[in-house]
Amino acid sequence: MAFFLETLFGGLMTGMLYSLVALGFVLIFKASGVFNFAQGAMVLIAALSMARFSEWIPQWLGIESLILANVLAFIISGIFMWLIAVAIERWVLRYLVNQEGTTLLMATIGISYFLDGMGQIIFGSSVYSIDVGMPKDPVFILESVFEGGVLISLEDLTAAAVSALLVAVLAVFFQYTSVGRALRAVADDHQAAQSIGIPLNRIWVVVWTVAGIVALVAGIIWGSKFGVQFTLSTAALRALPVVILGGLTSVPGAIVGGLIIGVGEKLSEVYVGPFVGGGIEIWFAYVLALVFLLFRPQGLFGEKIIDRV
Fold it and tell me: Which of 29-33, 40-44, 206-210 has the lowest mean pLDDT?
């Protein structure tokens, strides 16, 4: 039972990381109706900026405090992601208002390759580390219940807590603020939103900035665990099944979908993998996503679209 709980907890923590990346997809889609293929590149460049600025700031300012250096690096990285959002809106999105979804999708693919190249030019292409003081040592819990206790990672637990807090803030933002309601209006109909005075350009800057901050948090967590390297941009591919499972328009769906896939991957690899030769963790999420596409394409929390003719 203890081993099962360890596997379950590990899957939940991995699922929260998937959910963070998936949130970026959901945020952009809710505001523009386009699937943002550049989200993985945004996670990468956000993590690169955090890693490099936390390294450069102590050298530039002579700061010895790790906490202060990380806070300043986070603020500068957040401003950097805002500048990227402004540039994307000004030089790409404003020229593609009311265009077909395929056109916007191709634009995000182009943005993805551009961000990858810009990241190498500005920050370099080596492997970098991020140290934000997250606890690395695992601990044993429930020792009075199970012999030897249950081993969990404090780093994963901290990352899950940060992710949960971020999700709660975003849910409140979308449901109970005027900006959040404007974002949903823009997603439903660009022209109708503009006709009632909603500034489309500002809304897109806001949502891409929020998605950039989410990417920054995800990049910090991934970089703290595994290091920052250019394969990090493929993290978006791991989040695609999460988006399909939870629904493209649902913030809670991204979280629930991530948890289901994270737990499913771990449990299937441990308990089913030995009977089929292993490797289930690699393809489990995509097979599950395929099943949902066949029987419930809108996902668990997505809105079912009914066309009347």
Answer: 29-33
